[in-house]
Automatic annotation (TrEMBL):
GO MF annotation list: transcription corepressor activity
Domain Groucho/TLE N-terminal Q-rich: 2-97
Organism for this UniProt entry: Caenorhabditis tropicalis
WD repeats: 404-445, 486-517
Protein name: TLE_N domain-containing protein
């Protein structure tokens, strides 16, 4: 008989062996779980990558579909006879709001594909009218061409829909990440909007196939464009909110007394920060540029407007204001001795330029002021605020008169009629509003499908031009129900200014372009491209000079050529 201690030892050995066995099994299970975890992580990463790719593809597809729609409206539709144009455009409008069954002509839309993507699938029957189908058949390349889906991604305008209504400077550039451009809101959501170029040499891919991949289609399109004057339509007239129709310009649309033919660069004003505001003194002696935290003053006298030399000078002075915040608007008094300054701060400052001292710090009770205006007698200032209100302030008595509520999101731009009886304002709530200054109440409202970034009143008070986030310029009649829609910009329209003659106006955008338009129908007078986004502009009182402020951290002074 074994001693009890040996039995205990053997039992302990058996238990130890059993425990080792269980431990080995547990380790094996842990290894399996680790492998499964790694596989699940890989699967999740793959899923996330595929999901991101699909979302990007959907966005690209929707963008291409919008480009195709614009291409049809601007280029192909004008080739139709007058009888077919209206029905063609009406069919496109109906297609945008058609049900899935109508869009598929009875066939169901594949799950997960938004209606905006249908333009990417040329083989799906759209149910368009015969004129539209004929257009697609005429210009689509032969099956199996092998070209069409490639190409560079369209530019994106980074415009967000803010929760707090605050509009900020976006110091990134789509082409050059080291320079600043454009305008953005705070919360990081972005929307892309791009319009096909109206320049026939820049027409690009549309609807998932390259219209110019087929040389025969290119030749047919070139011939058709030649017959209609060699240029796609970029201006459309809309009456009573009806179907946009290409504008027929008069013979003198781009010539005549007071109609400019181009610009000549005269001075570069190297501010050192993004120039979000720029204005020219009434006597053309000085230019004022607003950047981050300061307004710089430039002497532009003795500039040879007829020569070819581009001058660069240092500023003669600098006004330190709004601390480290971007300045968004500078408004000079007529005598040139006083300037109003507003921006991404809760105050509007009034400076005496003769002594270069601040004489007023007006608290607005809002996060930012995006635009300023002065009454004709220079007694009242009007300020667009980030909270959507418009502040009216009596400068002489130094007291607030009232606020005009109405915009549900930030009020981004404003301008007064020449006699000061009406105030026009635009907002991030996609609306333009007209205010009666005698009654100080809203008397008209215009709704759009896009945020409003810039606005200007024609001196004859018959037209108001509006720059949009969706790249368009809308020209509204103040007396009738018609308007013009201009589509030359390829990104959001950041600033806009009428000439004092009222015969033309300019607009600038995140596409680096300055466009000059004939009032009101928008015949293109000239186009100038800078290196980065053009955030601000002004025209001198005698219409001889134009200044632009850009993301290239400088302003540029141009002489207007007639």
């Amino acid at each position: 008989m074994k001693p009890s201690y040996l039995e205990s030892l053997e039992r302990i050995k058996e238990e130890h062996a059993e425990m080792n066995k269980h431990l080995s099994q547990q380790r094996s299970e842990i290894d399996k779980i680790a492998v499964e975890k790694e596989n699940m992580t890989r699967s999740f990463m793959t899923y996330a990558e595929v999901s991101t790719t699909m979302r990007n593809d959907l966005r690209k597809a929707e963008e291409q579909n919008k480009r195709l729609q614009d291409f049809i409206i601007q280029t192909l539709a004008p080739m139709l006879s007058q009888d077919n144009q209206a029905s063609c455009l009406a069919a496109m409008e109906a297609f945008k709001t058609a049900s899935p069954r109508e869009n598929g002509n009875g066939a169901a839309i594949p799950p997960g594909i938004p209606p905006g993507m249908l333009g990417m699938f040329p083989n799906i029957p759209f149910g368009l009218n015969p004129a539209m189908s004929q257009l697609f058949n005429q210009f689509a390349p032969p099956q199996g061409n092998g070209e069409g889906a490639g190409g560079s991604e369209p530019k994106k305008a980074k415009l967000e829909d803010p929760d707090d209504g605050e509009l900020e400077i976006d110091v990134t550039n789509d082409d050059n990440p080291s320079t600043a451009n454009g305008t953005t809101n705070k919360n990081g959501r972005d929307s892309t909007n791009s319009v096909a170029s109206s320049d026939p040499n820049m027409l690009r891919q549309a609807g998932g196939f390259n219209l110019f991949g087929d040389p025969h289609a290119s030749a047919r399109l070139a011939a058709a464009m030649s017959q209609m004057g060699g240029r796609p339509a970029y201006s459309f007239k809309i009456v009573d909110n009806g179907v946009p129709t290409p504008t027929t310009f008069p013979p003198d649309a781009q010539k005549g007394p007071g109609i400019p033919t181009g610009l000549k660069k005269k001075m570069e004003l190297n501010h050192g920060e993004v120039v979000c505001a720029a204005t020219i003194a009434r006597d053309n002696s000085r230019v004022y540029t607003g950047g981050k935290g300061c307004v710089k003053i430039w002497d532009v006298r003795d500039t040879d407007l007829s020569g070819t030399t581009v001058v660069s000078r240092p500023p003669i002075s600098s006004l330190d204001c709004l601390k480290e915040n971007y300045i968004r608007s500078c408004k000079l008094f007529e005598d040139g001795n006083t300037i109003l300054i507003g921006g991404e701060a809760s105050t509007v400052a009034l400076w005496d330029l003769t002594t270069e001292t601040k004489t007023l710090d007006l608290e607005t009770d809002s996060q930012a002021c995006y635009a300023l205006a002065l009454s004709p007698d220079e007694k009242l200032l009007f300020a667009c605020l980030a909270d959507g209100n418009i502040l009216i302030y009596d400068i002489h008595n130094k007291e607030k008169v009232c606020t005009l509520p109405g915009h549900h999101d930030g009020a981004s731009c404003l301008d007064l009629s020449k006699d000061g009886s009406k105030l026009w304002s635009g907002g991030l709530d996609n609306s333009v509003r007209c205010w009666d200054m005698n009654q100080r109440k809203e008397i008209a409202k215009y709704e759009f499908a896009s945020q409003v970034f810039s606005l200007g009143c024609c001196p004859d008070d018959e037209w108001v031009a509006v720059g949009m986030e969706n790249n368009n310029v809308e020209v509204l009649s103040t007396t009738g129900k018609e308007k013009y829609q201009l589509t030359q910009h390829e990104s959001c329209v950041l600033s806009l200014k009428f000439a004092h003659s009222g015969k033309f106006f300019i607009s600038t955008g995140k596409d680096n372009v300055l466009n000059a338009w004939r009032t009101p129908y928008g015949a293109s007078l000239f186009q100038l491209k800078e290196n980065t986004s053009v955030l601000s502009c002004d025209i001198s009182f005698d219409d001889s000079l134009i200044v632009t402020g850009s993301g290239e951290k400088k302003a540029t002074l141009y002489a207007v050529e007639y």
